[in-house]
Amino acid sequence: MQDPLTRRVLSSWRRAFDAAKIRVELPVAGRRSRDRVGQTIRWTYPRCSELPLGPTGPVLLTEILDGFTADDYRRSAAILATVWRVSRVVVEPAEAGHVILRVIGRDLLRDPITHADLVRVRTGDPLRVPCARTETGDWWEWPYSSTLLVGASGSGKSGAVWSIVTGLQAARRRGEVVLVGCDPKAIEIRTAPWLFDLAVYELDEIGDLLEAVAQELQRRLRAPATARSWTLDRGPLIAVVIDELPAILTDRVRTRREAAQQNLDVLLRMGRSFGIAVVGASQAPQKDVIGDRTNYVSRVCLRLPNAREVDLVLGEGQSTVAPAHMIPPAHAANGYATAGLAWVQDETGHLIRVRFAHLTDADREAYRRPSAVA
Ligand SMILES: Nc1ncnc2c1ncn2[C@@H]1O[C@H](COP(=O)(O)OP(=O)(O)OP(=O)(O)O)[C@@H](O)[C@H]1O
Ligand SMILES: [Mg+2]
């Protein structure tokens, strides 16, 4: 028997695509409607076939009509969701001429994700660190590549940072990962320096650290390579975590700022092939405070105050598909109900709605005991 939500979606299929204006006027069999004065129009609608039911609702392989693109479907997702009275509709790429419509009847991101949830799905593989739940019930795994985290104060950047940092601890204990932290405001990383091989807070020290990592990159560049991607026999992976990027890139001391900018630029552009990844967090997305966003392989956009700022993180026009500016602010009064909600853009440009985990002081404290490393 068809589940009730699938029935509801299919029975209002044409009404939803009417509302989205995704339909083609054709002189073939189709529905007659009189939405033009004195004229009968025959419409053809996208055909769909049901894929196995997903954890949040129906999954429908849907035809892209002539004259439309997958982006048109993506932009209409909110209209489809309104007609179907569901939380969201996610449009995913599919075989030629089709998209997959994933109907989200139940919002899996409503409840916070905890450290214990992460521990359950970790494998210890430093190249796949689970950090956030996706709205379709999967896990977003940090892919060990440079990542930009942008979100207003209180949006939940720290959860993303600590999920990555704690997720690398098992590999760090095995000597596969070296973790360094830069915290120019000394408020985040300073709360758990034991999770890093080196944590620095002063701009001079941060400059020296970036210089040292850039030199290590140069050394790795010169060493003869047998494989295209980094292998552990050539040295450990190095992760550089920076909370508050702008404090470094707007440093008033020009020589120090320019040197840090240059080193960071080299690490971002070339680090990946040599086992070096930078994770940078910022409240603001402007180029003059975070550098060139396109240098980062993955971009994470948490709550921001307006669509223009979302576009600065994810690319022009992306705020229509990933409306991070519509996330209501999280605060104590609403129990931080929306903290950690974000859109992640992977290296293919695909946007995924996620909720990052929230780690408490006690969660970080537990890593002082080696037995806690998962
Ligand atoms: N993923 C989450 N789920 C639930 N609650 C969260 C989550 N992340 C953060 N919180 C709550 O929201 C508060 C603010 O989040 P957080 O410190 O991560 O903000 P931030 O983005 O780092 O802000 P700032 O730029 O001011 O440092 C936290 O103290 C915590 O109570
Ligand atoms: Mg923070």
Question: What does this molecule look like?
Answer:
The chain is of the alpha/beta class and 374 residues long. It folds into 2 domains: 101 residues; 260 residues, Rossmann fold (3-Layer(aba) Sandwich), CATH 3.40.50. It has 13 helices and 18 strands. It is elongated, with a radius of gyration of 23 Å. Bound molecules: adenosine-5'-triphosphate (ATP) and magnesium ion.
Short description:
With 374 residues, this protein is α/β, with parallel strands linked by helices. Helix content is 30%, strand content 24%.
Low-confidence stretches: none
Question: Could you estimate the helical fraction of the residues in percent?
Answer: 25-40%
Question: Ligands bound here?
Answer: adenosine-5'-triphosphate, magnesium ion
Report the sheet with the most strands, covering strand number, pairing sense and barrel closure. Answer: 11 strands, mixed
CATH superfamily of the largest domain: P-loop containing nucleotide triphosphate hydrolases
The CATH architecture classification of the largest domain is 3-Layer(aba) Sandwich
Number of domains: 2
Name the beta content range.
15-25%
Q: CATH class of the largest domain, please?
A: Alpha Beta
Q: Structural class, please?
A: alpha/beta
CATH topology of the largest domain: Rossmann fold
Cα distance, first to last residue?
Answer: 42 Å
Quick check: average pLDDT? Answer: 92
Rg, alpha carbons: 23 Å
The number of distinct helices, counting runs of at least 4 residues, comes to 13
Shape summary: elongated
> How many strand units?
18
